[in-house]
Amino acid sequence: MIVARNICRASMALCFALLLVLATQVNTKANAAQGRQAKFASLASKSGGHLNLDAALYNEITMAPRNYSVTTLMTALASQFGCEPCQKFQPEYEALARGWAKKRDNSHFFATLDFTKGKEIFKQMSLQHAPALLYFPPTTGPRASSDPSPITYDFNRAGFEAEDLAAWLTKDQDFPIEYVKPFAWWTFLTFATGICSAGALVVFVAPKMGGLISGTKLVWELVTLGTVIVMCSGYMWNHIRGAPYNGIGSGGRIEYFAGGFQNQFVAETHIVSSIYALLAFSMIALIIFVPNQRDPVRQRAGVYVWSVVFLGTFSLLFAIFRTKNPSYPFRLFL
C-alpha cells in the first residue's frame, strides 16, 4: 500500500510538473508573440504603416503563434524585371497601409517583400510571378483562425485598387478595414475645366451651331454610331461588374484579354471598341466615300484599300475571340 501510495504521489507530481512546463511554454510563446507584435508596431510607426521586409523579417512576422494578422505583398519593383503590375499596385498598397496606420491598431500589419531582398522566400514558395499578395490570419486571440496557412489574393478577380483590397479583406476575411481614397485634385481640375469649356460652348458657340445641328444628320449619326460601338464593346458590363483594367498572366506578364466569354478587362473594351470603330468607318468608306470618287483610278484604289482594311480588321477580331476561347470556330486570315 505504501509503495502504491508513493507511486501515485510521484505520478501526480510528474503530471503537475509537466503541466507547469507546458503552461510555461505557452506563456513564453504568448510573450514572444506579443514581443514580435510590439516590434513590428514600432517599425510600422516609423515607416508610415508600411513594412519593407527582408527574408529574416518575413520569417519572423509570419511565424506562429501570431496574435495579429498580416498581408505580405510579394513584388519585384526593380527596373530590370519590368513588372508593370508591381509598379501599378505598389502605391495603392502603401496608401492603404498609411490609412490603416492612422488608427494605431496593431492587430494587422501591411508588409512588402521585394524579390531582390527575399529570393530564397520566392524560391521556397515556388513563386514564378509577381505581384502576389498573401494574407496570414492570426493564430491566437479573438480573430484566431484554425488554419494558419496564408490566403492568396486574386488580382485578376478582385482588382488592383486599394479599395478592392480593402473590400476583399472586409468581406472575405472578416477583417473590417475602411479606405477613403484621397481627393483627386487633378481629376477635379480636369472636370472643372471641362464644365467651364462646356459652358463656354453653350454660351458662345451653340447659338451659331443650332442651324447646323438641326439641318444635318451627320452629327446625330456619329453620336449614335459611337454610342452603339462603345456599348457593344462591353462598357456597361465593366461598369456594373467593376472589372479591373488588365490582368496578370504567367511569368507576371500583363494580359489585356481575359479568358472565356464571361470575363473581360477594361483594356479589352478599349481595344475591341477601336476595332469596331475601324470596321464601321471602313464600311462607311466603301458605301459613301468610294462611290463619290469621280476618278475611276482613285475609286478602284479606294475599293482595294478599304476592302483590305475591312477584311484584315475582321480577321484580327476573330483572332482576338480565339484567344479568349480556343474553341471559337471562325477565322479569316489570321
Automatic annotation (TrEMBL):
Signal peptide positions on this chain: 1-23
Keyword check for rRNA processing: no
Primary localisation category: endoplasmic reticulum
Entry membrane topology: Multi-pass membrane protein
One Gene Ontology term, aspect cellular component: oligosaccharyltransferase complex
Role this protein plays: Subunit of the oligosaccharyl transferase (OST) complex that catalyzes the initial transfer of a defined glycan (Glc(3)Man(9)GlcNAc(2) in eukaryotes) from the lipid carrier dolichol-pyrophosphate to an asparagine residue within an Asn-X-Ser/Thr consensus motif in nascent polypeptide chains, the first step in protein N-glycosylation. N-glycosylation occurs cotranslationally and the complex associates with the Sec61 complex at the channel-forming translocon complex that mediates protein translocation across the endoplasmic reticulum (ER). All subunits are required for a maximal enzyme activity.
Protein's UniProt name: OST3-oligosaccharyltransferase gamma subunit
Naturally occurring in which organism (per UniProt): Tilletiaria anomala (strain ATCC 24038 / CBS 436.72 / UBC 951)
Biological classification of the source: Eukaryota, Fungi, Dikarya, Basidiomycota, Ustilaginomycotina
